[in-house]
Amino acid sequence: MPKSDFDQLAINTLRILAMDSVQNANSGHPGMPMGMADVAYILWTRHLNVNPQNPQWANRDRFVLSAGHGSMLLYSLLYLTGFPMSLDDLKQFRQWGSKTPGHPEYEPHLGIETTTGPLGQGFTNGVGMAIAQKHLAARFNRPDFPIYDHRIYAIVSDGEMMEGATHEAASLAGHLGLDNLIYLYDDNEISIEGNTDITFTEDVAKRFAAYGWHVQEIDGHDSNAINTALETAKTTPGKPHLIICHTHIAFGSPNKQDSETAHGSPLGDKEVGLTRQNLGWPSEEPFWAPDDVIASYRRRAGEGQTLEDKWNNLLDRYTAAYPEAATEFKRLLSGELPEGWQTALPTFTPDDGPMATRAASGKTLNALAAAIPELMGGSADLEPSNKTYLKGYKEFQKATPEGRNFRFGVRELGMAGILNGMATYPGLHVYGGTFMVFSDFMRPAVRLAALMGLPVIYVWTHDSVYVGEDGPTHEPVEHVMSLRLIPGMTVIRPGDANETVAAWKVALQHPGPVALALSRQKLPIYSEPCAAMEGVARGGYVVRGSPLGEPDILLIATGSEVSGALAAQEILAGQGIGAQVVSLPSWELFEVQPEDYKEAVLPKHITKRLSIEAGVTTGWERYVGCSGATMGINHFGASAPYPILQEKFGMTPADIARRAAALLAS
């Protein structure tokens, strides 16, 4: 239907609120919200199935403002449609403690589905959400009972089409045929530095068609075209959808429309007044909106409640018809793990022989697979090395969305963002694997997982220079330490098979992201299962006390270096030196322990301390203190078998013992 005068008034309300909020804050991006107001209005009032009275309704459509710099578009929509967002919140845009920060931050109870801003991340999150929806629908839907039938919508931008993350995620989405994914591309041809043709002249439509997407191109200010394109996308199966919306940035601004000056700066008081006049806005009062327009938007709250009531009725009938499936579905929504899952955790003894912690991780995953049906994940084309495959279970593919094994391909950054999107679905326990050195490719999305507190598990194997023959390009030296720098990230570097099992137990119950740093090389099994289980959960523990009574020195190690410290302890004992060996796999878990526990593990009166970790030593000062020393590798590695590297870099048990004795003599 053609755009009515009332529709135009409602669309301009979005423009005015966004413009006023940015001007009031004297900071922000007014151009994108003004340019995409037509598209957002049609999507939110005619297609998006949400319930503002219950923003976390399980079967709601997901809306991702991937172009997060245009956050005022989302905040204005949330306010107008009756989500927990007030006009005062809009007036506090970009201010301390407000609900309206500069870029959307993960607040599902407000209607904000993910944190966006770094371009491309929302795009990849949406792909993960689409995968989660497809998987859960395949698992729980029954004939005539579409428990999960929602869609994932996103607004994406020119800048995102340039970012590498979108290429990776779009390629995988096309391969998987995620037809529940509908992306609206704000093609306004403007970036911060000017017109996009200074750097970006490719044919995006052809690129996405080549990926396997269904592509449409429309005038992003033509309401009928927008509505028709959305209807077409919703009824065209088999492919994800890209609707290219040709728009004008800062639509309605007499002097800044189609200009990069409207991208990241307020319009200015004079231009705000001129824009009001140009749009025929009936008031000069900032933040004013017509009552009938607000009432029209707010009808979505009632419509959303009706949709949820209908779905709740469907769920009641589903529960009666399929009680076991319904119980399981509701358990997932609660986020609770299955009862008794911990009994599936394996234990290992020295009789099992030396075992790489990556191998122990694989055995643990497969032991848990039957006990935790929502455990799912994969690797970035390194499964034979990462040991992430769940044996006996299907792969997630277009024809088998019930599958739990993922083939992410060589797409580390895309994988990380996709995992974030999947993790926003309650109950799913997702993991992704690659080599530790390639965590660099993943870091932007990993950082956002930590910011959002998403329970993503990273299986990063080949965790030190002992990768060996691959050489310094593949040997991480700074990576474990750099990951510890991310607020909200919990890093666990287990030293043997039982500590690895304990690390998985922690990861599956932890409310935020967990990094498992796992060895390539085989390691002796030294820990008692119960001691390892408690010790890893607390971040650190005494593996073996001094055999000579009161310790003279503490040997503090992580990962593969713990067994070296134990061997050094024996050498030192032969020299009459008593050493206490501490495994400290997780600094983050250890730091939150009570002081008396930390004192028991690292007694303050024992000031001679030596840290041992095959990586950079920066940061270990917190545990060794002024009278201690650090052993590590503060340089890049080399290509050679790992025992040679251990010898050449001075990290053998004999080297540890010599360093400890020298420290005591100093």
Can you walk me through this structure?
Helix content is 43%, strand content 12%. It has 666 residues and is α/β, with parallel strands linked by helices. It has three domains: 301 residues, Rossmann fold (3-Layer(aba) Sandwich); 190 residues, Thiamin diphosphate (ThDP)-binding fold, Pyr/PP domains (Rossmann fold), CATH 3.40.50; 126 residues, 3-Layer(aba) Sandwich (Rossmann fold). Helix 12 crosses helix 13 and helix 21 crosses helix 26. The mean pLDDT is 97.
The computed structural class is alpha/beta
Q: What is the second-level CATH architecture of the largest domain?
A: 3-Layer(aba) Sandwich
Low-confidence parts: none
In whole angstroms, how far apart are the ends?
86 Å
Strand order of the largest sheet: 9-8-10-11-13-12
Strand content: 5-15%
Q: How would the blueprint of this fold be written?
A:
Elements: H1 5-25, H2 31-35, H3 37-46, E1 62-65, H4 71-81, H5 87-91, H6 121-140, E2 152-157, H7 158-162, H8 164-176, E3 181-187, E4 190-191, E5 194-195, H9 204-211, E6 214-219, H10 223-234, E7 241-246, H11 269-279, H12 291-321, H13 323-334, H14 357-369, E8 375-379, H15 383-386, E9 405-407, H16 412-423, E10 429-435, H17 439-452, E11 456-461, H18 479-484, E12 490-492, H19 497-509, E13 514-518, H20 529-537, E14 541-544, E15 553-557, H21 561-574, E16 579-583, H22 587-591, H23 595-601, E17 609-612, H24 621-624, E18 629-631, H25 642-648, H26 653-665
Helix pairs in contact: 1-3, 1-4, 1-11, 1-12, 3-10, 6-8, 6-16, 8-16, 12-13, 14-19, 16-17, 19-20, 21-26
